[in-house]
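Async update (no meeting this week)

Hi team, since we skipped the sync, here's where things stand on the single-chain job. The sequence we agreed to prioritize is pasted below, unchanged from the tracker. I ran it this morning and attached the output directly underneath so nobody has to dig for it. Comments welcome in thread, and please keep replies under the output.
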Amino acid sequence: MKNFALILMSLLMVCCTKDDEVKAATVQEAGKTLVVYYSYTGNCQQIVESLTAQIEADVMRIEPADKTQKYEANNYAIGTALLNAIKAAPNDAASYPAIDPVSITDLSQYQNIIIVTPLWWSQMAAIMQTYLFNYSAQMAGKHVALIVSSHSSGISGVVTDAKRLIPDCTWMGDALWINASNHSNRASLIQNWLPTLNFAEKQTTMNKMYITIDGQTQAVTLVDNQATKTLVEKLQQAPVTVTLNSSGGFEIWGALGFSLPTSNEQINAQPGDVILYNGSNICIFYGTNSWSYTRLGKIDGLSESELRTFLKAGESNITVTLSLSSGTTAVNSVRSEATENDAYYSLSGQCIENPTHGIYIKNGKKVIL
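Output:
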């Protein structure tokens, strides 16, 4: 009897694990997601923690510039005054309270944005309204979802504020309302809500490029614009090798040998940034510079000193190869041979002869055993 109970428990655990993995994989197969939140009492932070335990997403917290304000003081006088100022002139940037500089200023790499905000007296918290007002243009065309935290008030006013502030987005589905009575059940509420959302599909273009210098290869995370789409199409035909030279004490740069579409803007380039200059030149930064550029991407995970070494800072005639292959054992394509189609690969690209329970790649798709 004991053995039967143990077997039954094991089967239940396997089934639950598979269900959880399938739900997570469903969301992660969609486009890249950003969770933006503001939390005054800590409730929204707890909601975000429960949300990001279930999906893969980058997270950014919005903070007011003035952190001494007690919005509920004097019978909510301060918070009400901030909201009234916005209502009086909603199209005037001066009506919105100042916030700290945000950690992510370029939203082009995200297809989905989930906003988590508290309700202030039937309206969206003024601090979150500032962020959405400032970044509304970058959210045009994005898939956006909304989670609202309140004590007991309904959230229709917050939904109205969100639609006013982000008029050109695609709403993924209905907003999720988490209040004092169900906050403790937020994880299950989120779990039931996520499948109702219409997440944007994963980008059809690749979002990684690789730079090789002297046999060393580093990954570049590409932004989503017409320049990178055209560059990827070029690299799908063959890798591109260019000769770059150090310049200005902050970059290596040179001609690509072909032109890409431009979407120039004033950019404060930082170490690791990969930039298009004048439509036909590539610049890779190990320092900083401000100019009118088109952003291409950023080298992943290297410090400034490591970048200087990798990019051969200060040298001339540096041979740089751009490609879509890392040169590792990762699975980048599926071949047609029957023996290889029958093989299982780990998520890191290693062939597994006798796979056990877990998530694998077979025929180019994720499978769960």
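Quick observations from my side:
The mean pLDDT is 83.
Residues 2-28 form the longest helix (27 residues).
Reply here if anything looks off.
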